[in-house]
Amino acid sequence: MIFAAVVPAKAGTDNADRLFSAFYTTKPDGLGMGLSICRSIVEAHGGRVWASPRTGPGMTFQFTISAYGQGG
């Protein structure tokens, strides 16, 4: 299993409930598709993606995925 964590440079949002919903965005010109697409890709490969609050504002984004594909 591979585990990765990403901490964005900007604070973003603390609204973990809606982060992965399609068309939800915190940016004035955002489409709200990025995290929804990421989740679809990771889950299609047998993985899981989630966001966790960090100390201070913002979230840490984490995912796991099999090193050998589904069922690996």
Characteristic key phrases:
72 residues, alpha+beta, 15% helix, globular
What secondary-structure arrangement, pairings included, does this model have?
Elements: E1 2-6, H1 34-44, E2 48-53, E3 59-65
Antiparallel strand pairs: 1-3, 2-3
Walk me through what this model shows:
The chain has a three-stranded antiparallel sheet with strand order 1-3-2. The model has no long low-confidence stretch (mean pLDDT 82). With 72 residues, the protein is α+β, with helices and mostly antiparallel strands. A hairpin with a 5-residue loop joins strand 2 and strand 3. The protein has one helix and three strands.
Tally of separate helices: 1
Q: Which segments are poorly predicted (pLDDT under 50) over 5 or more consecutive residues?
A: none
**Strand residues, percent:** 25-35%
What gross morphology would you assign? globular
SSE string, helix = H, strand = E? EHEE
Termini separation (Å)?
Answer: 9 Å
Rounded to an integer, what's the Rg over CA atoms? 13 Å
| Spatial strand order of the main sheet | 1-3-2
Question: Strand pairing plus helix content: what structural class?
Answer: alpha+beta
Helix content: 10-25%
Major beta-sheet overview: 3 strands, antiparallel
Q: How many DSSP-defined strands?
A: 3
Average of the residue pLDDT scores: 82
